[in-house]
Amino acid sequence: MEEERLQKVIAESGYTSRRKAEELIKSRKVSVNGHIVDILGTKVKKSDTIIVDGTLLTKIEKEYYLLNKPRGVVSTSSDEKDRKTVVDIIETDTRIFPIGRLDYDTTGVLLLTNDGELTNILTHPNNHVPKTYLAKLDRIIEMEDFYKIKEGVNIDGVPLKVTHLKLKKTDKKNNTCFIELTITEGRNHIVKKLFNTLGYNVDKLTRTAYASLSVGTLLSGEYRTLTKREVHELYSYRRKK
Q1: Tens place of pLDDT for every residue, the chain, 241 residues?
Q2: Pairwise CA distance, residues 116 & 45, whole Å
Q3: Which among 28, 68, 112, 150 has most CB atoms closer than 10 A?
Q4: pTM of the predicted model as reported, rounded to 2 decimal places
Q5: Long-range CB pairs of 43-52, under 8 A, 24+ apart, other chains included
Q6: Is 181 exposed, middle or buried (0-12, 13-18, 19+ CB in 10 A)?
Q7: Does one domain contain both 140 and 194?
Q8: Measured at the alpha carbon of residue 79, what is the angle toward residues 11 and 19, in degrees to the nearest 5?
């Protein structure tokens, strides 16, 4: 029987993402056939008895959801401040988790699943998954700053590559504007940091697309399951070896 890396088997079971599985292994919270395993890359068979943090690993059906995240909800599975989470919105008994995060006050496209392998594919920086945002700024952007963003702005010492940038709307009366931009990375608060670096505040931020997926007709707080075709398209972002 073919053997695979332990962290991959855990992720494919739907228990958690591959990165989290690696953390659990290093923390000595995973056993295989009754023996603690703490070495990354250990090969196992899917028929082996694998226990993760006290839970017997079993193969479960994968679930995939697209949520139009509302404002004032945290993008985690649980919250120490007892705030409402995106997982609370989805009606399922399956243990799911969000793919990446949106800030508490950011709205728009958020994917949730119990597929750890897909989560690893979509969040790995080398896979360059596009994410499109619409940002409302506290004042109309100067064209000089607009072109600076096109050329690339360093955020925390690391350049940010913007693959698409468009001035969608200006409101001269209220001195505000809407900027649409697409990036292929997922650093925390990266869009807000981008504009803050140039002296602008982001009053509202919405993620309008993730890969090829958009909210479509979903209202704020509504969600739907992904089609098999959509899941297949998301898997196509896997790096070619």
Answers
A1: 578 889 988 887 878 888 889 999 999 999 999 999 999 989 998 788 999 999 888 777 889 999 999 999 999 888 888 899 999 999 998 889 999 999 999 999 999 999 888 998 999 989 999 999 999 999 999 999 999 999 999 999 999 999 999 999 999 999 999 999 999 988 889 999 999 999 999 999 999 999 999 999 999 999 999 999 999 999 999 875 4
A2: 18
A3: 112
A4: 0.79
A5: 43/3, 43/4, 43/5, 43/6, 44/3, 44/4, 44/5, 44/6, 44/9, 45/1, 45/2, 45/3, 46/1, 46/4, 46/9, 47/1, 50/6, 50/9, 50/10, 52/10, 52/15, 52/16, 52/21, 52/24
A6: buried
A7: yes
A8: 20
Structural domain range at position 120: 64-125+213-235
Active-site annotation holds for 103? yes
CATH code: domain of residue 14 = 3.10.290.10
Q: Is residue 146 part of a domain?
A: yes
- Residue at 241 is within a domain: no
Q: How many domains are there within the chain?
A: 3
Q: Residue 220 is part of a domain; what is its CATH number?
A: 3.30.70.580
Clarify whether residues 68 and 12 are in a common domain.
no
Q: Are residues 72 and 48 in the same domain?
A: no
203 is a domain residue: yes
* Ramachandran area for residue 28 (φ above 0: left; ψ -120 to 50: alpha; else beta): left
**Catalytic option among 79, 103, 138, 145:** 103
Domain contains 240: no
